[in-house]
Amino acid sequence: MTSMLKVLLILCLGITSAWGQAVVSGEITGAVTDSTGAVVPGATVRATNIETNVVADTKANEAGLYRVMSLIPGTYSIGVELTGFKKFLRENVAVSVGTVVRVDATLMIGDLTETVSVTGAAPMLKTDTADVSQTIGRRQIQDLPVLGRNITRLVQLVPGAGMNSSQLTGWPENAGEDFRVNINGQSSGNSNRQLDGVDNNETIQGLSMIVPSQDSVQEIKLTTSNYDAEFGQVAAAVIQVSTRSGTNYLHGSLFEFYRSSGMFARDPFTEPQRPASFVWNQFGGSLGGPIIR
To answer: Taking the CB of residue 282, how many other CB atoms lie within 10 A of it?
Structure first.
């Protein structure tokens, strides 16, 4: 009996360790070369978060390759510099949760005080991961019309997702309720839900324990196949929700979510003249900023 308890304890510790490795950040990788295509080792690579001014530094190895890890989701500028070359600068590089963004840098011979800024580069291809995923960014979350301002309904944007028809118009007043979304024919309980890298699965029905408010969400990443090895207990999709972090400035928002029967289509069988009268308002707001030390 004592041996059995020891085995169970070891298994529990292993499970806890596995969940602790959940992904909450992204990476930027690439190669540094000169104008002839030769590798440039030892170059300093600096990734700067545009909103928070947090800087992450690394150096290219002997093969001219670099990797900047553990970057919180956001927009970055990438600077690459080495004595004898002009500084390379790439602006507006979007980093999402669990993604590896590739930014290759070509250094031109010249003075380090000069800068070669790349602004019209071709779209970056995903060549470092094989997952099939879609990221719903901050702009989409904020601007897309969502019934009840409930982010769960945005999961329907991923190909292969479907929601039971009885839930499409139900419970708009509850922005914190999770809805059953079937992905690729799998039961809704077969998805793995994470909130800022923490397990967010309710054990009885397999829904989310916490559904954050729409204004607090930075992005939603939906992975439907070829998940990375660290994700377990999933046969449908990995749903990763990342909340917003503060910046160096105060930011706030106020909203009014308005629905009325004037924008409804009438039911020709039960509403021969016009839709039934309906008016509903939802008010709210948000506020965020830097930590005052």
So the answer is: 14
The domain defined by 132-243 carries CATH number 2.170.130.10? yes
Q: Where are the beta strands (DSSP E) in 142-237?
A: 161-163, 181-183, 192-195, 198-199, 217-225
Assessment of whether the complete model's pTM goes beyond 0.85: no
Domains 26-118 and 132-243 share a fold: no
Ordered DSSP codes for 38-98? -B-TT-EEEEEETTT--EEEEE--TTSEEEEEEEPSEEEEEEEE-TTBPEEEEEEEEE-TT
What is the reported pLDDT for 143? 86
Which DSSP state fits 36?
Answer: T
- Residues 50, 248 contacting (CB under 8 angstroms): no
Q: Please list the ranges in the chain whose pLDDT falls under 70.
A: 1-23, 120-128, 166-173, 232
pLDDT tens, position by position, 60-69:
999 999 999 9
CATH topology of domain 26-118: Immunoglobulin-like (2.60.40)
155-194 per-residue burial string, b: 16 or more CB within 10 A, e: under 16:
beebeebebeeeeeeeebeebebbbbbbbbeeebbbbbbb
For the chain, the domains span: 26-118, 132-243, 251-288
Residues 226-285 pLDDT 10s: 887 777 678 888 999 998 887 778 888 888 888 888 888 888 898 888 888 888 888 888
Q: Tell me how far CA of residue 237 lies from CA of 82, 94, 168, 216, 226, in angstroms.
A: 43, 23, 20, 22, 10
